[in-house]
TrEMBL record:
The chain crosses the membrane at residues 6-26. Residues 48-181 form the Thioredoxin domain. Signal peptide: none annotated. It comes from the Bacteria. This is Methylamine dehydrogenase accessory protein MauD.
Length: 195
């Protein structure tokens, strides 16, 4: 075998090894993206702006008396969900925990629209009888909710303190951090640091 033939074979071996390394790195990057979700809630520019007073809507409650949004001198966390949304269902234990830990100053309200029978089944299956559960398409339209799960934190004065698309407990808790710090979202904080 000539020196040129040996060099060609050696180059092909190097190329095949490089392809294997690139494939392994691409797989690791994919795994990393699955494990690391965005830190904060993805804020939406639709609906009432931060600091804006929420409309005083009287809403039907599947678990009790009608409730009025933004009234009563207590903060409210309105969590928009769907009976067919697996991420919404995965966040229900976090909402139960938040309700238990922050119940002195915060009301956690579940909100959706659609057929009442499906929501009654969800309430029973997930043990949500203690939560106010609003079934109102008007509420979703007022906040211009386009994707789920979505949450809005309303302060004790009835104004929007923070809001956004929430896919994890960390993103849900970031709404409280945004309200406390006055920085509307993690994305806004990063943008502020880079400018």
């Amino acid at each position: 075998m000539s020196l040129l033939g040996f060099a060609v074979i050696a180059l092909w071996v190097v190329v095949i090894l490089q392809l294997g390394v690139i494939f392994a790195l691409a797989r690791q990057v994919g795994i990393l993206f699955e494990r690391v979700s965005p830190v904060g809630a993805m804020i939406s520019s639709n609906g009432p702006e931060l600091g804006e007073t929420v409309p005083a809507l009287v809403l039907p409650n599947l678990n009790g008396a009608p409730l009025t949004l933004g009234q009563g001198g207590r903060s409210q966390l309105v969590f928009f969900l769907s009976t067919s949304c697996p991420i919404c269902k995965a966040l229900l234990p976090a909402l139960k925990s938040i309700r238990g830990d922050e119940g002195k100053w915060l009301d956690v309200i579940l909100a959706s629209d659609g057929r009442e029978t499906l929501h009654r089944k969800l309430i029973e299956a997930e043990g949500l009888g203690a939560f106010p559960y609003v079934l109102s398409s008007e509420l979703g339209m007022n906040f211009k909710v386009a994707k789920l799960p979505f949450a809005v934190l309303i302060d004790d004065r009835g104004t929007v303190a923070s809001k956004g698309l929430v896919n994890s407990r960390e993103q849900l808790e970031s709404l409280f951090t945004a309200s406390e710090t006055g920085i509307p979202s993690y994305q806004a904080a990063v943008a502020g640091m880079s400018s």
